[in-house]
Design brief:
The structure is a homodimer of 235-residue chains. Chain A is built from 8 helices and 12 strands. Chain A has 235 residues and is α+β, with helices and mostly antiparallel strands. Chain A has a 5-stranded mixed β-sheet. In chain A, β5 (74-79) and β6 form a beta hairpin. The first copy, chain A, binds a DNA duplex (30 and 30 nucleotides) through α7.
Chain lengths: 235, 235
DNA sequence: CGGTCTTTTGAAGTGCTTCAAAATACGTGG
DNA sequence: CCACGTATTTTGAAGCACTTCAAAAGACCG
């Protein structure tokens, strides 16, 4: 297996211990087939290291690869005409991205933190899926799962600032390993660009949630004090 | 094949002439496999007639079926806590929906106009996909295509009212058969709920686009006068 | 510690919403 | 085909949630 680095430094990468898989994913990466796709990607793919802020692919690049986060956090984003940045999605360890069926990217992807991703040619995966139903099945499940994610995001963006922030935090508790302590890999600006708000509104809204005794906030950590309050606010 | 009606009236349904397929879809429903899934769905599925306003499935229903619009227009939607309705997506003839990987629906689906849909058990499709790679492939392509759609919607909702309406109209020109004359199957309120705006803002914004000589508007038709102006406004 | 980046806080501005009502389109029975 | 009642769309004026602009406070890192 090749190992390359976007920053030009090559990392010989030992195959690591299986990463802890959040419950969220275990539920979907279930039964037969789960390992088949994993093996297929590891076999045909390349591990790439990246550092914070680095671009992984650009807007309008050919969409011929599929990605899986091994460590670190990645986001897709697009710069709007007025200069604002909208983040499409955050991808945490074990999340796959780049699954959408387009010829060219409509988003860019960038690293939120240092990390490693597994990069696989889509065509190679499709070929494997063509004669291994387990691979095909798992690829479909992943894609259909990402679809549900994107649909939930459409709903989130229809809500008020307080509901968006609450929804974001609830989603994070489900995606991160520790249930009540959210260790945020991203900055306030990233959260703002994800929720379609300004950084000031995010800051003020977090304070509001804190005043409602729903959470405790520090710069990079959010402690969920009252999950039901948060859920109620989420709507 | 069975034929049922949600309105309780049974329609004996002759197999109709092949529906005109918009270019948009031809591009993706290409080559080998396209017919395989189509045949699979027709073979294992049921055709259901519905009339305007009727619900096709409800929020929290088991998500065990996949749908394809034959005629008419369908939308998925969710009622938010404050009573507002957010439309997830519109589905036009030949569009598939309900592909997302969840156990229960997070949206409801309803008919925007009278029409017919093809309803297939997801499990049946998955079983067929398990021993026919062409079916599996086409199912993945459809799902990955729907994913790209949903991601584009996230971007749309980040924009200004004028950009949203322009973007909506451009999308419609791509999805509907006639290129410059958009025959809207939905009401202003549906458009508003789709774009996360109020009906008043949609009305005012359409007028604005008309004043910019980008379009002509009547109640159920929009004529695109200047596609490049519309694209520029879209951002 | 000193410098820089990030976050918070405050005050004023604005794009969209809300509320209200007129104008128009639509369906239906006569 | 017209008249009438209802549903939809448009238009106007006021309000508000979030943004913008500005600056202080705090966090991070060599």
């Amino acid at each position: 297996m090749q190992t390359t680095s976007l920053s030009g430094v090559s990392h010989p990468l030992p195959v690591e211990d299986p990463l802890p898989i959040p419950e969220y994913h275990q539920h979907h990466a279930n039964r037969e087939g789960s390992q088949a796709l994993e093996r297929a990607m590891l076999h045909t793919g390349v591990i790439v290291s990246f550092s914070r802020g680095e671009d992984i692919f650009g807007d309008d690049d050919p969409a011929d690869k599929v990605y899986k986060v091994l460590t670190g956090t990645v986001c897709t984003y697009k710069i709007l005409s007025d200069g604002r940045r909208q983040i499409g999605e955050f991808y945490l360890p074990n999340d796959s991205f780049g699954l959408e069926n387009v010829s060219r990217r409509s988003h860019s992807a960038a690293a939120i933190t240092d990390g490693k991703i597994l990069v696989t040619k889509r065509a190679a995966l499709m070929a494997l899926a063509g004669h291994d139903p387990a691979v095909a099945r798992q690829l479909l499940i992943l894609t259909a799962f990402e679809l549900a994610r994107a649909q939930d995001r459409v709903l989130l963006l229809a809500k008020t600032a307080e509901e968006r922030v609450a929804g974001f935090l609830i989603d994070m508790t489900k995606r991160l390993p520790a249930r009540n302590l959210i260790e945020l890999p991203m900055l306030r600006q990233d959260i703002a660009d994800y929720l379609g708000l300004t950084i000031e509104t995010v800051s003020r809204t977090l304070k509001l949630l804190k005043d409602h005794s729903a959470i405790d906030v520090s710069t990079r950590k959010v402690m969920v004090r009252n999950h039901s309050t948060l859920s109620r606010i989420n709507g």
